[in-house]
Amino acid sequence: MDKNYHDIPGTYVFDGTQNRAGYHLNMFCKSLDVEANRDAFRNDPDVYLDRYPMTAEQRKAIEDRDWLGMLQLGGNIYYTFKIAIFDQVSMQAVGGMMSNMTEEEFRQMMINGGRSVEGNRSKSEGN
Amino acid sequence: MARITAGIGTSHVPAIGAAIDHDKTQEDYWKPLFDGYMPAQEYVEKNTPDVAILVYNDHASAFSLELISTFLLGVADYFPPADEGYGPRQVPGVEGHPELAWHLAESLILDEFDMAIANEMPVDHGLTVPLSITCGQPDAWPFKVIPLCVNVIQYPQPTGKRCFKLGQAIRKAVESFPEDLHVAIYGTGGMSHQLQGERAGLINADFDNAFLDDLTADVDRLVNIGHMEYLRESGSEGIEMIMWLIMRGALGEQAKEIYRHYHVPASNTGAGLIILEAA
Description:
The complex is a heterodimer of chains A (127) and B (279). Chain A is an all-alpha fold and 127 residues long.
């Protein structure tokens, strides 16, 4: 199987390996769709997180709101973003935190046309 | 017989729906985008279909990692807006067309496209934002909708070529439906965007504009774009554009461009819209 998408910089392709690694992390995120679950998580995050058999690293990434770390440990952005909705944090703020920018810098980059593909295509080719 | 006369390609960015719902469309940030949507609304008002097949993806709303369907048809007579964490969008519920939807499911499966079938599912911004973009804010949507949900989150997504062929099979299936129905098809999502990782915020306007051009000029090129090219050139979420190829396949060999609009940014996305007619 061709996995050369690992050559794309700064991009975590959600393949079977990621799905397996991140299943419980993502299903925790998905559970926040339900208001009663959001209340339970808010009231006692530790007890709530115990319901999901995650690795210690995954749990710490959630507790630290380490958005990149969650992706690296199998999180998928559509799932992890449910934590951002819970925190009332915008997609542009999360985009900034993943790429070392403030929310305002990220927003301005988008207004200026977004992040260029030039120089961002390939780790091996450096283009 | 039923016939597919028009195809609409459009982005389905959730922030576009929020701008409509919170009355922000005339603010400086949003006005250029929404000005470009007005001709599309006029077109849909003048050429209102009886039914629209709306190709979209669910964003971990109706479905989760428990069950991942590559292609899924909604056959219900009603689909409620999903709660995506903010409460459901305050938009009309979506009325289905079970007779045509079942006809599609049966025809497509016998034609070797193995569709999953959903009798109950909420629909998220992927489906309701294209309706808002092209219909505004009516009390009820002006046509019935058959949701066709495509997996674009879990790699590997279906190929663009497979999507195009599914579109061709949809055209055949619609034309074998006896009732005289005017059917439109929406391909939604995209255009270039990446929500995740250090490369978040990627936009490739050249890629997007060439994609819009080649929906009429060089469909073969689009059909042969592979996963790597979408991921690399249009961002990890730009691969949603494969859904536009279902729409394009359903229009037949030749299609005519009626209108297009492209604007950067809508939140983190290159927002495109195109109206095509079967030639």
